[in-house]
Amino acid sequence: MKNIKLVLTTAIFATLFGCVNNDNYADPDLSGECGDLTATKTVQNIATLATGTVKSYNSTVPPGVSADDIIEAYVTSSDEGGNFYKSISMVSLDGTKGFSVPVDDYNLYTKFEPGRKVYIRMKNRYFYNNPLTNGLEIGNLFDNGEPLADEVGRLEIVEYQDIVKRSCTKVDENTLVNTMTIPAMLNDANLNKLIEISGVQFSDANVGKTYYDSNNQIGGATNNIVSDALGNTLIVRISEFATFAAKPVSSLNGKIRGVLTKYLGGYQFMVRTENDIMLTNTRIDSAPPIVGNANVFDATLNEPFTSYALNLANFPKYINDADFGPRYWQIKQFPTGTGNKYIEMSSFAGNGNPGVPCKTFFMVPVNFTAASTMTFKKEMRFFRGEVALKVYYIKSADYVPGSAVDRTKLTDITSGSGFNILYPAIGASENSFTSPGTFNIPASLTGNGYFVFEYIGTDTQTTTVQIDDITIG
């Protein structure tokens, strides 16, 4: 106990005097703390020996032969941004094989920054292909005890700098970057490598939230989804401890750089700092507004939807805008083939599956000056307990057909303006179309514009909304 106290006291004093005598709080200058060794083995040599069972490197060396072997690699990861924790990802000098070394320390980027060449002493080390991550790991032995299998554990804080040696060589990390498409990168051969993907953007479901979302987290991190123009997707995992965790998810399109990892069969892309998220281009709308070719601002309308084909989403007289998410209003019929036709929207994606987050507008042109009223009929199915339908109007001066709707220009008339949209009990459905009331167009509302029906769905709010008999008079 006395020895422990002495060590702690010495450490505290060293910290205090270090702060008092030095007003420079930047990262420490470690330029003199480096040295070059001679590699005797390659990363590939170790990878060839690795299996899913932990091995002692010493046991792989023939009797009478020294185990004092050294491998060399470049660092690809960084814990500067708080998204990596007590682990260093590296890649062989030729860039063909990545691996990781768990280390029981913080701020590893101050010594082992991306592009830094390091040497690893293999004597007394343990290694394996981690069954949980599929990646090669090199470190100490973590004995789980019988009957559990052993694992590779962290290098201890008092020893790791003698095992992982910082060389005096540092290359530009750009020379380590592998530029790939999403499908090409999703391969175990790319684990722990530094990869950059381009032409990608975060999903609609993530945009508007923060990189770490406490309402959408697994194991203290959020699995954000990015996609490319072809619909290929990838998880970008952000820890709650990331320095940028509370920042809003970018809505733009561009490049993302990071280190590929894997857990329980699923690939995860790990950015190191916010600087790895290089989204500066205009967002690609994967579900652009469908603008009809016969939009007319009429004073009257009687729309029963009987003349349209089943599943139609392109309406000549209207605008169908998947503002958020990939789904559009479509023509449906019940009973199919003989029954009533109507437009329908739902976020439902099948039993047991999360819903597809959607906010979709159905826009009806109108001459506000000449018209007096608007009404419609609705039917709610499989109600999930939250508002699923809103009604607005917007002036044509505030909206260009085919452009993004400026929500600040929408006037909400869902309730208190003649409409009273009712819902069935949670889990129940309405079995007939009913009118929620009539909106009387105020005399002050003149000129052309649109009545706007908005469906709102989430991963849990999957109520089906059906609309029929839109009437303007």
UniProtKB/TrEMBL annotation:
Pfam family, one: DUF5689
Family matches, as InterPro entries: DUF5689 (IPR043744)
Start and end residues of each DUF5689 domain: 39-277
Superkingdom: Bacteria
Protein name: DUF5689 domain-containing protein
Organism: Flavobacterium terrigena
